[in-house]
Specification:
Elements lengths: L1 H20 L1 H6 L7 E4 L1 H7 L1 H30 L6 H44 L4 E4 L8 E2 L1 H10 L2
Parallel strand pairs: 1-2, 1-3
Helix pairs in contact: 1-3, 1-5, 3-4, 3-6, 4-5, 5-6
Length: 159
C-alpha cells in the first residue's frame, strides 16, 4: 500500500508537470486539437511485473532487516561483554538503525529506477499513439484515451 501511494504521488506530480513543461506547445496549438491520454496508476502498480518485482524486493529487504535484528540481538545476548543491558540495547538499536538506513537507500534507488522506467514507458506509448498530453486517470473528468495497458506492455517488455 505504501508503494502504491509513493508511486501514485510521484507519477501524479511528474504527469502534472508535463503540461507545464509543454506550456509553449499547448499555447501554440488549440487544446481541442490535442490528443489526450491517461494512465491508471493504481492499475499499473497492481499489474505491472516491474512494480510487482519492486514490491517483492521491498518485502525481501524487510525480512532481511528483521533477520538482521534477531541475529544481532542473539549475538549480544550470547556475548561475554562487560556491557550492561541498557548499553547492549543501545548498541543493538544503533546497528539495526544503520542497517535500516542502508536497506531504505536500496529501496529508494530501486523505486527511482522503476519510476523512471514508468515515465519512459509512458513517453514511448505517447509517441507511438501520437498523444500530446498524458494525465492520470484521477485527474480527468472525462475524455482521453486509456493507454494504461499499453504502458504496462512497454514497461514489462523492457526488462
Amino acid at each position: 500500500m505504501k508503494l502504491q501511494k509513493l508511486l501514485l504521488i510521484a507519477l501524479v506530480a511528474s504527469t502534472l508537470a508535463v503540461p507545464a513543461q509543454m506550456g509553449q506547445k499547448a499555447q501554440s496549438a488549440e487544446l481541442t486539437n490535442q490528443n489526450v491520454g491517461f494512465i491508471d496508476v493504481n492499475y499499473i502498480v497492481n499489474n505491472s511485473k516491474e512494480t510487482q518485482a519492486l514490491k517483492q524486493k521491498q518485502d525481501t529487504l524487510t525480512v532481511e532487516l528483521q533477520k538482521f535484528g534477531i541475529t544481532e540481538k542473539e549475538k549480544m545476548m550470547n556475548s561475554k561483554t562487560s556491557l550492561n543491558k541498557e548499553d547492549m540495547e543501545k548498541e543493538l538499536i544503533k546497528k539495526v538503525s544503520l542497517k535500516k538506513d542502508d536497506l531504505e537507500k536500496q529501496y529508494r534507488d530501486n523505486f527511482i529506477a522503476v519510476q523512471q522506467k514508468i515515465k519512459t514507458a509512458v513517453a514511448t506509448v505517447e509517441k507511438q499513439k501520437h498523444i500530446d498530453l498524458v494525465f492520470t486517470k484521477d485527474s480527468l473528468v472525462s475524455g482521453g484515451v486509456d493507454i494504461t495497458k499499453d504502458v504496462i506492455d512497454v514497461l514489462d517488455s523492457t526488462k
